[in-house]
From TrEMBL:
Keyword annotations: Oxidoreductase
Lineage: Bacteria, Bacillati, Actinomycetota, Actinomycetes, Propionibacteriales
UniProt superkingdom: Bacteria
Origin species: Nocardioides cremeus
Name listed for the protein in its UniProt record: SDR family NAD(P)-dependent oxidoreductase
InterPro entries: NAD(P)-bd_dom_sf, SDR_fam
Oxidoreductase as UniProt keyword: yes
Family stated for the protein in its record: Belongs to the short-chain dehydrogenases/reductases (SDR) family.
Xref: Pfam families: adh_short (PF00106)
Length: 218
């Protein structure tokens, strides 16, 4: 049997890279999708050097056709997807009086809409026990007015995760977002590695007590 596979959408340095390493240590193969080649290639080469089987692709995840094709191709090569992790969001330093409608919609397309593309692409390769995880943020509940679109994205993606979980659970596939109640840092409770550990644990909840949102407070 092939090794289990995690598909990381929005791959690069930070939480997504830490999560890819965490699953690699647990024996998973890794598929990476990112919008910039250099960080995706660097992460893939690092994982490969450690003995992990890695596939990767560069795609604009807001381009639904290109993103769906890239993700489907990666999943088809493995023939299975055991975990899909969704990490993208857009940080735009504009308050609500500066933010334009087209900018808000573009950010939501990245931070929320692209999750639909990813899930729909991997669903044919998921069986009972597969999981969808999403990096959430306290911005969903405590938005910073100077980056107004971020809170909208994080509230939206958390809401979408609840709908996905309700839709998928009948087939034994579950979805969860982890609301990170802190700012990422190089030390302490909110390092990318610590947040990745929280995401890893969230995917392994007991099915009987499954929660579609978990709060990580460090």
């Amino acid at each position: 049997m092939n090794a289990p596979l995690i598909v990381v959408v929005g791959a690069g340095p930070g939480v997504s890279g830490s999560l890819a390493r965490r699953y690699a240590r647990d024996g998973y193969s890794v598929a990476l999708v990112g919008n910039e080649e250099a960080p995706v290639r660097a992460l893939a080469e690092e994982l490969e050097a450690g003995g992990t089987a890695v596939q990767w692709a560069v795609a604009d995840v807001t381009d639904t056709t290109a993103a769906a094709s890239a993700i489907t191709d990666l999943a088809a090569q493995a023939g299975r997807v055991d975990v899909l992790h969704f990490n993208p969001s857009a940080f735009r330093h504009k308050n609500p009086l500066e933010l334009q409608v087209d900018e808000l919609l573009a950010d939501v397309a990245l931070g929320v809409g692209a999750l639909l593309t990813a899930v729909q692409a991997v669903r044919p390769f998921m069986s009972a026990g597969a999981r969808v995880t999403v990096t959430g943020s306290m911005a969903a509940d405590e938005p910073w007015s100077e980056a107004a679109s971020l809170g909208v994205q994080k509230a939206g993606v958390r809401n979408l995760v609840h709908s996905l979980d309700a839709t998928l659970k009948g087939d034994g596939v579950r979805a969860v977002s982890v609301t990170v109640c802190g700012t990422l840092s190089t030390e302490g409770a909110f390092t990318p590695d610590r947040v990745a550990d929280a995401l890893f644990v969230a995917a392994r909840q007991d099915e009987d007590g499954w929660r579609a949102e978990i709060t990580y407070e460090g």
